[in-house]
Write a structure and sequence with these properties.
The chain is an alpha/beta fold and about 150 residues long. The protein has 2 domains: about 5-90, Rossmann fold; about 115-150, no CATH class. About 30% of the residues lie in helices and about 25% in strands. It has 5 helices and 7 strands; from the N terminus they run E-H-E-E-H-E-H-E-H-E-H-E. The strands form 3 sheets. Strands 3-4-5 form a 3-stranded parallel β-sheet. It has a two-stranded parallel sheet with strand order 1-2. The model has no long low-confidence stretch (mean pLDDT about 90).
Length: about 150
């Protein structure tokens, strides 16, 4: 598979290091206006133009929306009913077999997580402020200390 990543200028090298074959800087270029088409478009943030993504899908392409708005859900249902393209959205699965599969991918080194920052639970408000700025690179982790004292 050929993977194209879309990110800001500051994340170009990070996305390349994660294995993208091609990286597009969304501050310089709108990938949906290039004429390139894709089998799958994964929008984890939910800020990409819906119509641009659907237009950029191949005939039976799939648009996966990780954080859908009500508008995108309604438009997705309409797209499913009126074309061969598919729009899927939803939450992460917590089925045991899916979690085991993800665990195996991690253990095999095929799934890489990117941790931007870690905050102790006591600094959760600061962590939220950082995330809300919209410039994090990867995930922000909240650590919880366990006391096994009885």
């Amino acid at each position: 598979a050929e993977v194209t990543g879309v990110c800001s200028t500051t994340n170009l090298e990070l996305v390349k290091s994660l294995g993208a074959d091609k990286v597009i800087d969304y501050t310089q270029e709108d990938f949906s206006k290039s004429g390139q088409t894709y089998d799958i478009i994964l929008d984890t943030v939910g800020k990409i133009s819906y119509s641009g993504c659907v237009r950029s899908l191949r005939g039976k392409g799939i648009y996966l929306i990780g954080n859908p708005t009500l508008s995108k859900i309604v438009r997705g249902l309409w797209t499913k009913m009126t074309s061969s393209k598919k729009v899927k959205f939803g939450l992460a699965s917590s089925r045991t077999e899916d979690l085991i599969f993800i665990k195996e991918l991690i253990e095999a080194g095929k799934l890489k997580s990117v941790i931007d920052r870690r905050y102790p639970l006591e600094q959760i408000a600061e962590a939220h402020r950082y995330v809300d700025k919209g410039h994090k690179k990867g995930n922000v982790v909240i650590t919880v200390e366990h006391n096994n004292k009885t």
